[in-house]
Amino acid sequence: MKYVFIIICIGILSSCKNESEIQPKSFSSVVVKDILIDSTLSIRAIDLLADKSLAFAANNNSFGLYNPKNESWMISKQLYDSLSIQFRAVAHTTTDFFMLSVENPALLFKTGDNGAMELVYKEEHEKVFYDAIRFWNNNEGIAIGDPINGCMSIIITRDGGQTWNKVLCDKLPKAVDGEAAFAASNTNIAIIGDKVWVATGGISSRILHSPDKGKTWQVFNTPIMQGESTTGIYSIDFYDENNGFAIGGDFTKPELNKANKMITSDGGKTWTLVSENKSPGYRSCVQYVPTSNAKSLITVGFNGIDFSIDKGNTWKHLSNEAFYTIRFLNDSTAYAAGKGRISKLFFK
C-alpha cells in the first residue's frame, strides 16, 4: 500500500504543473464563423453567461441570447417610452442579466421575476453617459460613466442589482477637465477578487483603482497617448491582481501606434509602454488569452485582429476582420461582436 500511495502522489504532482511552467499556445491564424448577421445593429457589449450561452445588447433597443447547443437566437426589443435606446454595457450574475444604456436618461435593466427585463436604475442629466458594467460576485457590481460634478460617475450595487447607488464625488478622485471614458467595448472595467480598475481617456487618461470593492479609491497616471477628446485608454484587462494590459490610441487616427499600448506588473500603480511605433494602432478591446500565464493577448478593432505571445512586446496581425469587442470561451475559441454581426472565432 505504501508504494501504491507513493505512485499516486507522484502522479498527482506530475499532473499539477505550476502555471508558470506551461507554455501558452501560439496562434498564426483565426477562422471567423458568423453566428448573427443584422446590418441594423452596432454591437459593442457581449457577455458569456454561466451556462456558456452568449448574451448581447446593442442599439435600436435590441438585446438577445444565443444558445450554443442548438445554435439558436432569442432576440428582443426593450421599449421605454418612445426612446431609441443604445446599450453598450452588459453584465451578469448567476441568476440575472443586466444591460445599461449610454445616454440621457441612463437606463439600467435586469431580468425580472416574470422573465421580462425590469428597470432598476435611472439617471437623468445632460452629461450622463455610461460606459461599462461588471460584477465582483452575485451581490456586488459596479458601472462607470463620464464625469458629472467633477468626478467619474460610479454606481454600485450590494444587493444583487436590485438597487444601485451613486458614489459621492468626495469619495472619488477628482476628474481632470476633459477626462471621460469610452463606451467602445464594455472593457473600461477590470475586476480581480475584491479589486477593480477603471480606465479613463480623453484629455487625461488614468487608472482609478479600488482594492475593496469600491469603498476606497486612488488614482494612477499613465503614459498612454492623451490630450485630445478621442485619445487614451479604450480597453483594459487584468490576468491576475498584478498583471494588466491596456490599449487604445485615437480612433480618428487608427494607424497611430505610438504610446497606445502599455503593461503593468504591480497592480496598476505603474505602467510601461510596449511595442512603441509598431502595429497594432488603435484597438477598442484587449483580452488576455486564458491559461497563458499573463503572456498572451488578443486585441480587436475595426482594423482587425492581432495576437501577442510575449506580453504585448511584439504582435502578429491575424486578420483584417473588423470587431469592436471579444470574449474568450476557452484558450482558443472566442466570441466577437461588431458592426452588424456577432461571430465565433477559432484561433489556430
Can you describe what's shown?
With 348 residues, this protein is mainly beta. It has one domain (25-347): Methylamine Dehydrogenase, Chain H (7 Propeller), CATH 2.130.10.10. The chain is 4% helix and 46% strand. A four-stranded antiparallel beta sheet has the order 2-3-4-5, with no helix packed on it. A hairpin with a 5-residue loop joins strand 20 (231-238) and strand 21. It is globular, with a radius of gyration of 20 Å. It starts with a helix and ends with a strand. Residues 1-15 have low confidence and may be disordered.
List keywords for this structure.
348 residues, globular, four-stranded antiparallel beta sheet, mainly beta, Methylamine Dehydrogenase, Chain H, disordered N terminus, 29 strands
List the helices and strands and how they pair.
Blueprint: H1 2-15, E1 30-42, E2 45-48, E3 54-57, E4 62-67, E5 72-77, E6 87-92, E7 97-101, E8 106-111, E9 117-123, E10 130-135, E11 141-148, E12 151-157, E13 165-166, E14 179-180, E15 189-192, E16 195-199, E17 201-202, E18 206-210, E19 218-221, E20 231-238, E21 244-250, E22 261-264, E23 272-273, E24 285-288, E25 297-301, E26 304-308, E27 316-319, E28 325-328, E29 333-347
Antiparallel strand pairs: 1-29, 2-3, 3-4, 4-5, 6-7, 7-8, 8-9, 10-11, 11-12, 12-13, 14-17, 15-16, 16-18, 18-19, 20-21, 21-22, 22-23, 24-25, 25-26, 26-27, 28-29
